[in-house]
Amino acid sequence: MSLVTATIKRDLIIAARNPGEWLNPLMFFLMVLALFPLAVDPDPKFLSKIAAGVVWVAALLATLLSLDALFKADVEDGTLEQWLASGESLYAMALGKVFVHWCISGLPLTLVAPLLALMMNLPDDAYGALFFSLLLGTPILSLLGAVGAALTAGVRSGGLLLSLVILPLYIPILIFGASAVYHAGIGMDYAGQLGFLASFLCISMTLTPFAVAGALKLNLSR
Amino acid sequence: MTRPAPVDQLNRFTLHCDLSAHDVSCERDDRILFEDLSLSVKKGDLIQLVGPNGAGKTTLLRLMAGLNQDFDGEVHWQGENIQSCFQDYARQRLYIGHLSAIKKVLTPLENLRWFVSSWPEVKEDDLWQALEEVTLAGYEDVPCQQLSAGQQRRVALARLLVTPTPLWILDEPFTALDKAGVEWLEAQLARHVERGGSVLITSHHALSDIPALRQIELGMHK
Q1: Do A88 and B99 touch (CB under 8 A)?
Q2: N or C: which end of chain B has fewer CB within 10 A?
Q3: Which residues of chain B make contact with A76, given a CB cutoff of 8 A?
Q4: Is B12 exposed, middle or buried (CB count within 10 Å of its CB: 0-12, 13-18, 19+)?
């Protein structure tokens, strides 16, 4: 077994033994969607109008919440140093780490989002669009977020810095993701938005691991 | 302590150590740590870097291990710059830093399994034997957070028994070990150089019993 697959397996085991780590963003997502109708106008028509945007913003912020810890523990306990010492491709490592992150953050969000969208009275036609836009969109959020997490892994309170670095990059994903769901809700075609998300996913999957690898190397060569 | 035979079998090296630093200089925050330092580690060498805190021992160790590229001069493995043959080099040397890279929620066995995943020739049985040898028999399935600091260090050091590398680079390996542990590690170092391996080590611990020992003192620059 190579170090990359061993690391993926190990990180999944760690996540399984530390459920708080990945349940926290999921709980946040649930709470936002539960509280929103209480705080704003509970009129179903109004809710169904804003549902697409609210679900997407909540998913984005929940992802952001889980990013801070992505590389921090590995930098602090020397795991990253061992990666670097192993001579194996940091590119593959970065992809592996992001994959695990998506499995424990983006994937559960995508799976529960259609259920929670019921509370926001999402239009019936929009559920498919919501699921697929999140399925394509959340891995992009993990990939882009990993760049920020790698850059700030050595900083003591990097959470704020991470949000500042990453949030501007998230905006296009949010716009296209939410607009796919909104357009589906009013009965329009949303293939274009999903196409954009898919192509952005391909680009970020090929390019961001380079940035992550570079940032991690920078963090360790001190 | 008697040592089981199969682990020993594994430690027949395919290659002998030939690591050399040529005129390396390193500066940190406008302070020269060492200048034009040349050093070679050959078969059967045990080299201890000594010097006061902050003298640059860890820095030199890390650049010899290929983890730090921020220096002048060159480090060669088998006559080739380590950066151009890093993967081959990484497979032939074992680096244990002062951060142990132990994951607290995993058991010693799971941690060890991850450490050796770059060496597919290492068998599962060897891991059990190695843990037994570092007196952790019976703790194989206990999460590392329930072990003492010294026991966690033993998990990290158990790698010395199972990874078939001729060169060991160890940064303060005696930290947190008890008296028996220190004796055991000294015996391992002596045995490793006897069978043709090489060790590059930083330690404040006196290693005077081992005949092959050479000391290099850092911290002469002001």
Answers
A1: no
A2: C
A3: 99
A4: exposed
